[in-house]
Amino acid sequence: MRTLWSAALLYAGVAWAADLSGIWMGQMEVRNGQKVDVAFQLKQQGTQLRGKLYGDYESSPIVSGIVAGKLVTFVVEAQEQAGNQINQTRLRFTGSLDGDELELVREREGSRNAGNKGGAAAREGKQRFRARRLLGAR
Fold this sequence. Notes:
By secondary structure, the chain is mainly beta. It contains one helix and eight strands; from the N terminus they run αββββββββ.
C-alpha cells in the first residue's frame, strides 16, 4: 500500500508540475555586497531540467536537474577565478516557484583546480536570491 501511495504522490507532483522552460533573470550578491546579474535558460521535459547559467563573461551548463511540482533542484558546472587560479566548481541550486518568480538558494558542492584537477578551497555559504521569468511558457 505504501508503494501505491508513493506512486500516487509522484504522479500528482508530475501532473501539477509547472513548466519552467524559458529565460529567467535575477541578481546574486557576491563579495563585498556587490550584486551581479545572472540569467538562466531553462528547458524542461517532464521532470527533467536542462539549460545554462549565464554570467557576465561566460555560460555554464546545467548538468542535472529535476522538477517536482513547484520544487526545483539543478547542478551547474562553472569555472571561477580565484586570484591566478581557475577552478571548476559544482553549484547546486534548490528552490521553488512562487508566482512568476523562482526563489533559489545557491550552494557550492565542491571545487577543483581546472588546470591540474587538484582540490581548491571553496568559499562557504549559501546565497538566496530570486529570478523572474522574462520569456517562455507560463
